[in-house]
Task: inverse folding
């Protein structure tokens, strides 16, 4: 059974897989034993939809499990696909459930796996660029007996092409997950330059052993999505072409119970030869389903695919062209030849990305010719519309809509965009507002303004945005002003912590300093200050430029003058020290509210590294100084930052030792 072929260990990757297993508790108990099954359970059968495939062709794997001649609908299968040669990592490692929930005992439900995309510093991310490394924080919570197994992960791009697979620890050297413990590790995936732009998925599994050796799943498969972004230029998906047709895996639910189906595409950089697939059931770990197939070169031309950004370029503006999604059925793309359609010279390059500047406005047909390693070529053409100098574009929204008499109506023009002067984007210098209700015109440098309408009716609000060269963009909208009989008033009266627990300090009103790794409840107090009961929701989020939600809670029929305190869980484990995070609570704006500014409340939390008393990002003499100044004092009057151990004081050698152990660290 190819005993010479093994999983790659964490040390075998050129880039390195960073193992961060941090065991919180190490109580030694007997290994968990998994259930045994009668010998009447038949071997798992596995087949493919073809005996031979070429690059980017869909591969269908079809497995079933029977017992006493009957299909088993609630099993769990481990699936592995390998190149039939020693020294190569698996192409895929997955767990598939049947068409019903697994029977009790098939999986260890005491094990929970959570995976999130992060950077090397464990800061949460939404995606990664092609040609870079993607990192994933994996948290394994074991609330039951000690478990041993192999931790494996596979990633697939938006076109269902495997882009990276690996495991931690090879057969015979399993990872030990202690009882009642929380373990952490960092998985990494090399995002290839040919990966499809869009939503990709990484899957995390814990197997009893390598599937090709009969290893079966011992915990539920965990997964998370992330975005694969262009290798350079704007990270948003560029307009200008369709990407590879997305073929998501078919899943495990079929019209016939007991079938376990899976689909993926052959990667464009595949090694030609024989591949072997394995399927192993938790119900019959000694029985393997095996299927072999060939991957061969095809006499088909490569597919030329490219995107460009910005999607509406201007004359003399650099346009980014990215042909990384092009692929060959025979191997790899070796040359990219561009014809810009504007009379300039054609350009050939072995790299998939390039920039071009169109000198004159107009419509151009850009052609890409790609040549693969077999000498075959393919063409693609996309129209590119280039604009000349343009004025700024005015855009605004207002709320509430409709608004009402004497309400504080918010007009927001932040979506307005600069124009183009032939060499650059002149910034917007001012915003001119006319509300059509007889009030004076307002000229301001701020994009957000508040206005009160004092009479009923329909009014035309007009915005003029002017850039630094004097060019003007205009937008108008109808505003309906109505009367209301009720006057609700929802106010978020506070956000904070009833009593800052260990690891978090209140430095000033609405300003806190948590140490990285602190977790606890954020409290939000809301008041219905209106004259009647009201129903609304409250959303809490935090942001350091990117917005992350902490949840939304719905409140029903809160009585007049009723006050409620809500709790939201916040975990700073993955947050980067020395960064400020704004925590904001927002309550629904109800029809008839006149003071909508009270519907929002924000505080600041500055995340610190261990031992960094003053939060400047380095543990040094300044931190010792704060400890020394408050030596022997309790909180208060001692500076709460000096109470590192969080026992209220007195400030003593325990607090000093934490600074000493971390001396010289930078965050």
Result:
């Amino acid at each position: 059974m190819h005993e010479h072929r093994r999983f790659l260990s964490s040390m075998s990757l050129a880039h390195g897989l960073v193992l961060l297993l941090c065991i919180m508790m190490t109580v030694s108990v007997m290994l968990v034993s998994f259930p045994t099954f009668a010998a009447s359970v038949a071997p798992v059968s596995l087949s493919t939809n073809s005996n031979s495939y070429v690059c980017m062709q869909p591969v269908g794997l079809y497995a079933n499990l029977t017992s006493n001649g009957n299909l088993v609908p609630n099993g769990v299968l481990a699936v592995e696909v390998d190149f039939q040669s020693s020294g190569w990592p698996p192409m895929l490692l997955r767990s598939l459930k049947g068409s019903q929930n697994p029977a009790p005992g098939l999986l260890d439900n005491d094990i929970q796996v959570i995976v999130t995309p992060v950077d090397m510093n464990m800061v949460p991310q939404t995606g990664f660029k092609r040609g870079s490394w993607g990192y994933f924080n994996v948290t394994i919570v074991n609330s039951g007996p000690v478990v041993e197994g192999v931790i494996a992960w596979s990633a697939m791009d938006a076109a269902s092409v495997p882009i990276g697979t690996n495991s931690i620890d090879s057969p015979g050297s399993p990872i030990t997950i202690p009882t009642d413990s929380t373990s952490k590790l960092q998985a990494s995936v090399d995002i290839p330059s040919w990966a499809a732009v869009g939503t990709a998925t990484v899957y995390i599994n814990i197997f009893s052993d390598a599937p090709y050796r009969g290893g079966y799943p011992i915990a539920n498969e965990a997964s998370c999505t992330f975005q694969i972004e262009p290798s350079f230029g704007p990270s948003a998906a560029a307009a200008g072409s369709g990407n590879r047709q997305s073929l998501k895996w078919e899943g495990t639910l079929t019209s016939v119970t007991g079938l376990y189906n899976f689909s993926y595409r052959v990667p464009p950089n595949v090694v030609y030869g024989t591949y072997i697939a394995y399927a192993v059931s938790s119900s019959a770990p000694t029985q393997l389903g095996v299927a072999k197939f060939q991957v061969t070169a095809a006499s088909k031309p490569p597919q030329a695919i490219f995107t460009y950004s910005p999607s509406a370029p201007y004359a003399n503006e650099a346009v980014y062209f990215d042909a990384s999604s092009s692929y060959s059925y025979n191997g790899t793309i070796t040359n990219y030849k561009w014809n810009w359609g504007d009379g300039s010279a054609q350009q050939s390059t072995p790299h998939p990305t390039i920039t071009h500047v169109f000198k004159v406005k107009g419509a151009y047909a850009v052609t890409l010719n790609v040549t693969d390693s077999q000498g075959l070529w393919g063409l693609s053409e996309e129209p590119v519309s280039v604009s000349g100098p343009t004025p700024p574009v005015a855009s605004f929204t207002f709320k509430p809509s409709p608004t009402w008499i004497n309400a504080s109506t918010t007009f927001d023009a932040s979506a307005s965009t600069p124009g183009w002067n032939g060499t650059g984007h002149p910034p917007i210098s001012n915003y001119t507002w006319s509300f059509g209700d007889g009030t004076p015109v307002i000229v301001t440098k701020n994009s957000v303004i508040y206005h009160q309408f004092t009479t009923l009716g329909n009014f035309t609000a007009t915005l003029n945005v002017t850039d630094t060269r004097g060019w003007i963009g205009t937008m108008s909208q109808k505003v309906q002003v109505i009367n209301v009989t009720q006057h609700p008033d929802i106010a978020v009266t506070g956000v904070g912590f009833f009593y800052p627990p260990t690891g978090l300090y209140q430095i000033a009103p609405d300003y806190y300093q948590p140490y990285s790794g602190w977790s606890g409840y954020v409290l939000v107090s809301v008041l219905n200050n209106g004259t009647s009961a009201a129903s609304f929701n409250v959303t809490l989020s935090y942001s350091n430029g990117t917005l992350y939600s902490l949840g939304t809670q719905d409140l029903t029929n809160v009585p007049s003058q009723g006050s409620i305190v809500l709790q939201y869980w916040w975990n700073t484990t993955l947050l980067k020290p020395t960064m400020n995070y704004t925590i904001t609570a927002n309550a629904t704006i109800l029809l008839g509210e006149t003071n909508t500014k009270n519907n929002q409340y924000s505080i600041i939390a500055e995340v610190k590294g261990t031992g960094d008393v003053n939060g400047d990002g380095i543990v040094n003499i300044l931190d010792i100084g704060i400890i020394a100044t408050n030596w022997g004092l309790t909180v208060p009057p001692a500076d709460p930052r000096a109470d590192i151990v969080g026992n209220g004081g007195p400030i003593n050698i325990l607090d000093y030792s934490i600074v000493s152990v971390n001396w010289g660290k930078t965050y």
